[in-house]
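Hi, here's the filled form for the chain we discussed.

Project: internal
Contact: R.S.
Residues: 64
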Amino acid sequence: MTTTDISLSQDELALLMRMLETALGETRVELHHTHFSPAFRQEVKEEAELLRGLLERLRKAAPR
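And the returned structure, exactly as it came back:
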């Protein structure tokens, strides 16, 4: 896996976190409405896990 470092201002970090939280909320809605395609449902679950992981890492890195 390749990693990338990025420098963000506090405002940029806050915006990114809000956007990720919004996207995570949308995956919850998507999961609720996805009954007919198990493959798509799995994709949404995996995306939600990635979003949760990103948010967790950003929260740890965020200045207090």
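Let me know if anything looks off before we file it.
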